[in-house]
Design brief:
Layout lengths: L7 H10 L18 H6 L8 E3 L2 E3 L2 H11 L9 H6 L6 H4 L6 H8 L2 H17 L8 H18 L5 H29 L13 H16 L8 H9 L4 H11 L2 H6 L7
Antiparallel strand pairs: 1-2
Pfam families: GST_N_3 (PF13417)
Protein name: GST N-terminal domain-containing protein
Organism: Multifurca ochricompacta
Length: 264
């Protein structure tokens, strides 16, 4: 799916490692990742998913590590930063719907996030109702409960205490995101301009995709608007982060993952 934050990370990896792949589009808007046939391949129904030589790799970390293992191009190994950038407290997918107050919730509810959630929920229920879906009933029931909760929040159907809890979690999320950008990332960049040194390492493949989503959610539509968007939301960003962003968007792998330099 071209707008998946984590599917972009393996695209960056392919470009950096000089590898080719045969991409298959899984339409997240329509909930196609909940198709029972896809769930057979990836029980988590998440992207990215890679199949190669009879094996399936069903997480961003697993996919990228496998690509690195089969490439003759050597890049810096991952550090603890890869684990940190995948922690729930800075989840870029939750940031897509996160709202800290009624004003932000109204804006989110009137935008693409609500359309995405509604159509995705419809697709999920459709697949769950099929005979093939009954095999995965427990999984589908859990997903329906989770997405229905978000749908209720976006459509004014959630109790006040649930809404306030959502605001609190959203506030904590954006505070943690700012901390990562202003503290964790600069500390991880030593030689620079990348965490991996003069060229992107494994950590950078994950962090680059994550940062692109945060820049997009902050108002950046194109790559050259990324830093300005981050600064509009958070204030002046550290110089190391500016250099990091500039180094990334100048690479061919970036343009391959973000065609026409359009962020998502």
């Amino acid at each position: 799916f071209p707008h998946s934050v984590w599917a972009a990370a393996p695209h960056l990896a392919l470009g950096e490692l000089g590898l080719d792949a045969d991409p298959k589009v899984v339409n997240l808007i329509e909930g196609a990742n909940f198709d029972p046939e896809f769930v057979k391949v990836n029980p988590h129904a998440t992207l990215p998913t890679l199949t190669h030589e009879g094996k399936s790799f069903t997480s961003t970390v697993a996919v990228i590590n496998y690509l690195v293992s089969i490439s003759s191009t050597k890049i810096a190994p991952e550090t603890s930063i890869t684990k940190v950038v995948h922690e729930d407290k800075i989840d870029p997918n939750f940031a897509f719907v996160a709202s800290r107050n009624d004003e932000e919730l109204a804006k989110t509810s009137s935008g693409f996030a609500n359309i995405f959630t509604s159509t995705r929920l419809g697709g999920l229920k459709k697949f769950a109702a099929t005979p093939e879906g009954q095999v995965h009933k427990a999984f589908y029931d859990k997903q329906i409960t989770s997405i229905s909760g978000v749908h209720a929040l976006l459509n004014g159907q959630a109790p006040d205490e649930v809404k306030q809890g959502f605001f609190n979690v959203s506030t904590a999320l954006w505070e943690s995101i700012k901390s990562f950008i202003f503290e964790t990332l600069p500390a991880a960049i030593t030689v620079g301009p990348f965490i991996g040194g003069s060229r992107p390492g494994i950590d950078d493949l994950h962090v680059g995709a994550w940062l692109a989503r945060i820049a997009f959610l902050s108002g950046g539509q194109k790559s050259d608007q990324g830093v300005a968007a981050l600064e509009k939301r958070f204030g002046p960003v550290p110089e190391k982060v500016k250099v990091y962003w500039s180094a990334w968007i100048a690479r061919d792998s970036w343009v391959g993952a973000y065609p026409d330099n359009v962020l998502h």
